[in-house]
Amino acid sequence: MSKTAALRVIAFPGAPNLPIFAASEHGFFEQAGVSVDLTVTPNSAFQFEKLAAGEFDIAMSAYDNIVAYSEGQGAVKVRDDFDVKVLMGATQLELAFVTAPDVTQYEHLKGRTLALDALATGFAFVLYDMLKSGGLGPDDYKMVPVGATPNRWQSVKEGQHAGTLTIEPFTSIARAASFNVLDLSSRLYPSYQGGVVAASNAWAHANADAVKGYIAGYLGGLAWTLDPQNREAASALLLAKMPEIKPGVVGAVMNSLLSPKSGLRPKAAILRDGMKTVLDLRSRYGAAKKTLTDIDKYLELSFYNVVAKTHG
C-alpha cells in the first residue's frame, strides 16, 4: 500500500487483545501499511450497531455474534443489507462460570440472578447449557443483561448478581478475590470457537489492501505474543495496557492466554469443530429454533489465505 490506511477496530475488553497491543507497540501494523485505533465495546449490541452503521471497520468479536446477526437473531436490529463475515480466527475459548463466595454448587443458585452480556448470545447459550447440566431449569434462576465482561464481573463482585461467565484476565482476578469458578466450558465442549476477526463483507472487498494489512499486522503481533522468548515482555505489555490486571495474577492470565485449550490460536486459524459447537448451541437455544449447520456461510477467508502464505 502506498499510504497508511487508518482502521477503526472495536473489540471486547480482555487479554485476547494482546496481539493487537503487540502489533501496535512493535510496528507490525505500521509495516503492513495500516494504523489501528482500538475501541473497547460495552456490549455486543453496541458493537454490532456501530459496525453496521459504518462507525467501525473491523470487529474482534465472538463467532456466535456473526452467526446471530447473519441470521437476523442479533440483540439489536441492524440494516437489512448488513452482511458480516469472519475474516480469520482468534481464540479457542474457555469460559469460566464465576460465582459468589457462598455459591459452591449449582443448587445454591436457585432464586438468584446471573449476569450476561445479552440474553440471546452464544455465551448465554453456554451458561444455559452449564445450568442444565448442573440440574437447574429455567425457572430456578433469572438472567439479567449487564454488558461486557468487566461490567458483569463488577456486578458479581459487588453482590448484585450471583454469577457470570468470564474470560481472562477476569477469571484469574475473580479467583484471586476468593470468588469461585463453579464450572468451565471446556468440561462440556472440547472445542469452542470464541473470538474471531469480522467485518462487513462489502466493506472488506472494497478495502482489500487494508484488510490484508490488518491481518498481516495482527499475525505479526500474534507470533510475537506466542514466542516463549517474549513472555516476560508480553506480560509487561499486558499489565501496561490493562491496569486492572495485577502482577500477582498476570502469570495465570498468560498461562490461559497461551494455552491451546483456552487461548490464542496459532496463526489465527479457525476451529471448524469449535464453530460446529457454536452452531449446535444456537440451533438448540436460539429463539428461531432453526437448525444451523453451514459453517462456511459465515466465512470470508480469501484475504487471510493470501496473507497467511507469507506468514509461515
Commentary on this structure:
The protein is α/β, with parallel strands linked by helices. It folds into two domains: 5-92 and 193-257 and 264-308, D-Maltodextrin-Binding Protein, domain 2 (3-Layer(aba) Sandwich), CATH 3.40.190.10; 96-188, Periplasmic binding protein-like II (D-Maltodextrin-Binding Protein, domain 2, 3-Layer(aba) Sandwich). It contains 14 helices and ten strands. The protein has helices at residues 18-25, 28-31, 44-52, 63-70, 122-133, 149-157, 170-176, 185-188, 201-206, 208-226, 231-241, 247-258, 272-285, 302-308, and strands spanning 5-11, 34-40, 58-62, 84-89, 96-99, 112-116, 141-145, 163-166, 180-184, 195-200. Helix 5 links the parallel strand 6 (112-116) and strand 7 (141-145). Helix 11 packs across helix 12 (247-258).
Topology:
Elements: E1 5-11, H1 18-25, H2 28-31, E2 34-40, H3 44-52, E3 58-62, H4 63-70, E4 84-89, E5 96-99, E6 112-116, H5 122-133, E7 141-145, H6 149-157, E8 163-166, H7 170-176, E9 180-184, H8 185-188, E10 195-200, H9 201-206, H10 208-226, H11 231-241, H12 247-258, H13 272-285, H14 302-308
Parallel strand pairs: 1-2, 1-3, 6-7, 6-8
Antiparallel strand pairs: 3-10, 4-10, 5-8, 5-9
Helix pairs in contact: 1-10, 4-13, 5-13, 7-12, 10-14, 11-12
